[in-house]
From TrEMBL:
This is Helix-hairpin-helix domain-containing protein. Keywords: Membrane, Transmembrane, Transmembrane helix. The lineage of its organism: Bacteria, Pseudomonadati, Bacteroidota, Flavobacteriia, Flavobacteriales. It comes from the Bacteria. Pfam families: HHH_3. The chain crosses the membrane at residues 12-32.
C-alpha cells in the first residue's frame, strides 16, 4: 500500500500540475459561455434592421408564390373549353350550360349575357369579367344615327348590276357597311382567300365569326357573288358515302344516315327533306345545299 502513496518531490509536483490543469479546464468550460454571452451583449443586434430584412424575405416569398399561380390572359368567353373553364373555377354545370348555348349558334356579347347563360355567381363574374375580350364591333359599335342616315338614302333595293361582286370587294369597300369594321372586313377577305376562287354564295357569310344576321343583311344589300367559285355538286339521290363526306359538315355517320333515309324514302323529293335525317346539322343546311342537287 505504501508503494502506491509514496511519491518523490518531482512526482508530487507533476500531480499538482495535473490537478491545476484539470481545474483550469473545468473553470473554462463553465465560465466561457457566460463570457461570450457578455461579449455579445456588448454588441446588441439592431432589431429594426432585422425586422426590415425579415419583411423583405416575406415579400420575396409572396412574390414567388404569386408568380407560381396560373396567369389569366384576356379571352373571348364564347370559346371557353372544358379545361379552360376548370382552370377558371367554373363548375361542370356552368360549362355545360355555356356549350349548350353555343350549339344553338348564338353568341355571348357581354358579361351580363355570360352570367345569364352560365348562372355563375356575382363574385365569380366580378373576378373573371375584367378578362373578357369581345370583337370590336361588339365593344365599339358605330353610332346608329350614322347608319340610319346613310341607309335611308339607299332604302330602295339595288339591282344585280348595281351591287359589288363579293369576290372582288376590297376591305375599304366592305368597311362602308354599317357594323363592318377593320377587323371584320379583314376576316371576310381572309375567309374568302381560304378557297381558290372565293365565295360560292352569299350564304357563306354566315360562316364568318362576328357577322350577325343584321350585318349580313346589310352586306347583301350592297354586295353579291357574281363570280362564284367552281365546285363539284353531287346528286343527293345517287351520291355515294365517300362523295358525301367530301361536303363540309357531313361526316361518315351523317353520310350513312343520309343513304339509309334515302333508301327508305326511295329517293329525296327535295333537299329540305335532309332535315329529317338523324344527326343532320340542320343549322348548316344552306351551306350543305351548295354542294348538292336533285
Amino acid at each position: 500500500m505504501k508503494s502506491h502513496f509514496q511519491f518523490s518531490n518531482q512526482q508530487r509536483n507533476g500531480i499538482f500540475l495535473l490537478l491545476a490543469i484539470i481545474l483550469i479546464l473545468q473553470c473554462a468550460y463553465w465560465f466561457a459561455p457566460k463570457l461570450f454571452a457578455g461579449s455579445k451583449n456588448e454588441h446588441p443586434e439592431n432589431k429594426k434592421e432585422l425586422e426590415i430584412f425579415k419583411h423583405e424575405i416575406d415579400s420575396l416569398r409572396l412574390v414567388e408564390i404569386e408568380n407560381k399561380k396560373p396567369k389569366i390572359y384576356p379571352f373571348n368567353p364564347n370559346y371557353i373549353t372544358d379545361y379552360k373553364g376548370y382552370t377558371l373555377g367554373m363548375t361542370n354545370e356552368e360549362i355545360d350550360r355555356l356549350h349548350k348555348f353555343r350549339k344553338t349558334n348564338q353568341w355571348i356579347n357581354s358579361a351580363k349575357d355570360f352570367q345569364s347563360v352560365t348562372k355563375v355567381s356575382d363574385s365569380f363574374l366580378a373576378t373573371i369579367s375584367p378578362y373578357f375580350k369581345f370583337p370590336d364591333w361588339v365593344t365599339n359599335p358605330k353610332p346608329k344615327t350614322s347608319y340610319s342616315n346613310s341607309y335611308s338614302n339607299s332604302a330602295k333595293p339595288k339591282t344585280y348590276n348595281q351591287k359589288v361582286d363579293l369576290n372582288l370587294a376590297t376591305a375599304s369597300q366592305l368597311k362602308k357597311v354599317y357594323g363592318v369594321g377593320e377587323k371584320l372586313s379583314e376576316r371576310i377577305i381572309k375567309y374568302r382567300d381560304k378557297f381558290k376562287g372565293g365565295f360560292v354564295s352569299n350564304v357563306q357569310l354566315s360562316e364568318i365569326y362576328g357577322l350577325s344576321p343584321e350585318v349580313i343583311e346589310r352586306i347583301n344589300f350592297d354586295f353579291t357573288v357574281k363570280t362564284p367559285r367552281a365546285i363539284e355538286k353531287f346528286n343527293i339521290n345517287t351520291a355515294t358515302r365517300d362523295e358525301l363526306v367530301t361536303i363540309q359538315y357531313i361526316d361518315y355517320e351523317v353520310a350513312n344516315n343520309i343513304i339509309e333515309e334515302r333508301t327508305l324514302r326511295e329517293g329525296f323529293k327535295s333537299l329540305e327533306e335532309l332535315t329529317n335525317v338523324e344527326d343532320f346539322p340542320i343549322k348548316k343546311i344552306e351551306i350543305i345545299k351548295l354542294y348538292l342537287h336533285l
